[in-house]
Design a protein that fits this description.
Protein L1 is also a translational repressor protein, it controls the translation of the L11 operon by binding to its mRNA. Binds directly to 23S rRNA. The L1 stalk is quite mobile in the ribosome, and is involved in E site tRNA release. This is Large ribosomal subunit protein uL1. Pfam families: Ribosomal_L1. It comes from Neolewinella maritima. One of its GO terms (cellular component) is ribosome. It is a single chain. The chain has 230 residues and is of the alpha/beta class. The protein has helices spanning 2-13, 23-32, 84-89, 98-105, 121-124, 128-131, 149-157, 182-198; strands at residues 41-48, 60-64, 75-78, 94-96, 113-116, 160-164, 170-177, 209-216, 222-224. The chain has a 4-stranded antiparallel β-sheet with strand order 7-1-8-9, covered by helices on one side. Strand 3, helix 3 (84-89) and strand 4 (94-96) form a beta-alpha-beta unit. Helix 2 (23-32) packs across helix 8 (182-198). It starts with a helix and ends in a 6-residue tail after the last strand.
Length: 230
Amino acid sequence: MAKLGKARKAATEKVDATKQYSLDEAMALVKEVNTAKFNASVDVHVRLGIDPRKADQALRGTVTLPHGTGKTKTVLAFVTPDKEQEALDAGADYAGLDDLVKRVTDGWTDFDVVVAMPQTMAKVGRLGRVLGPRGLMPNPKTGTVTMDVGKAVSDVKGGKIAFRVDKFGIIHSSIGRVEFTSEQLTQNANELLGTLVRMKPSSAKGNYMKSVTVASTMSPGIKIDPKTIA
């Protein structure tokens, strides 16, 4: 433990807590100060100047990261029998309806993303108690309730991620892994942050992007200057 503490202390000393780094600098630095012995996730935390209690400011959406997240998502597709093969061909790990609804009802949640056809939502809607708290409930706004299940599944497998603002006005999202190059992390971060800029609610007043921080699973947070976002 002492060795880990020493490594963390050395990493912290490399980060100037009073400085806002450019996006490029921050992505290079987050790789340098990572102390994990595994391929840690790199996450961006964006504090927005919005009030999530107002319906038009409760931001949620999707973005396709150019280089994916570095993690293969396990996809569950709730579909009618005629669409099962299409979902599986597109990369779904599980596809079906009644048998899968029963498994989830019994507490099974060994998947990362749920896609559903509109016709299945009467049955899927009953799973809110299990899926809701885990952020797994399919939603038309994130493209996970759709007739085109094949495209929805392949989009997720290709790096499409969903995000939503929490009650404090913060978006938390993975943008890759420490094994990514700093250029790949920068491009992924730009895609996410640019999407958030474009989604600024017209009713939001004052400073919109209040703070942007990047950190790996086991690294100190690095502040990013919002003005350096392309």
